[in-house]
Structures are given as C-alpha cells and as structure tokens.
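Journal club side-thread
Mid-discussion, someone asked how the predicted structure for our own chain would compare to the paper's figures. Pasting it here so we can look after the session.
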Amino acid sequence: DLLRTDSAKLKKLRPAQRERFLGFYEDLALLVHSGLIQEHLAFYAFGYWLDKVWNSKHFWADDKNKEDSYWFLLRQLRFRMEKQSKTFGAFIAKHNQVESYGTVRRTFRF
C-alpha cells in the first residue's frame, strides 16, 4: 500500500529493497524483449505497479536515479507501456464485456 498512496515511508526503504523491487521489472523487461512473455500481458499484469513506482515522489531517493544507465531496461519498458497505453485502453474498453470472451481469448492466445 505504500506505493498505492505514494507514502512518505517509501523514503525509508533501504537501497537494496528498492533495487530488488526495480530488479523485478528489469527482469520483466528482459522477458518481454526476448519474447518469452507477450508485452501486452506484462503490461496488464504488472503495469499498474510500474506506473506507480515510476511516478512516485517518495520511492526515488533522487529523480536522477531514473535516468541512470543501470535502469535502462526499466525505463524502456515504462516508455513502451506509456506508448501502448492508449491502444491497450481502447482494446480493453472494446472487449470488456461477456460477449467478447471468445474474441479476447483468441487474441491473447490463452
């Protein structure tokens, strides 16, 4: 809930805790870039928290850290998600109904 509300308690996280959390998204970016997980599924499953951490005022000890080359894959994943958000939002709005279950199932290849 700290990220959900952008709590000031996020400032108290140890660097290792921050790196472990962000490292997960770096790994996710590797999976997306290698084709092991579909991009839209990654965004659907993990995009909310990626957006929350990226826009948090309290998570990042220094905003310059976002631009560090260490977080290159994280940054690229975030920018790709931002670019796809309109398309993905339109898709969800169109298919977020019971009648389209079969269509969505074929689209996402479950």
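Post-session note: DSSP finds five helices and no strands in the chain.
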